[in-house]
Fold:
Amino acid sequence: MGKQMTEMLKGVLEGIVLAILAGRSAYGYEITAWLREQGFADIAEGTVYALLIRVEQRGLVDVEKVPSEKGPPRKVFSLNDQGRQYLDEFWKTWGFLAERLEQLHQGGK
Structure:
């Protein structure tokens, strides 16, 4: 991934992770693996874990500790009502920006 892609991704990664959690509960490694399968190969696990800690601290997700076959319990994250509201706002903002960028791309029409 180039520098420009990395910088753009930083700005929307939170929304992407919350959108994943809107579909199902997951733990950090599952989210990272899914992102890599979708072509975001350069995303480090540490980036996702740090993001999950931030959204947990902001009250956007609920966390449940689930026993793991290997090692300590896993923290499984699920989107809560506050997180859903935040994600709705993210999609509205994304739609607004995408429209404006497309207009610029088409020559400002």
The radius of gyration is 16 Å. The beta strands are 26-27, 61-66, 74-79. The mean pLDDT is 92.
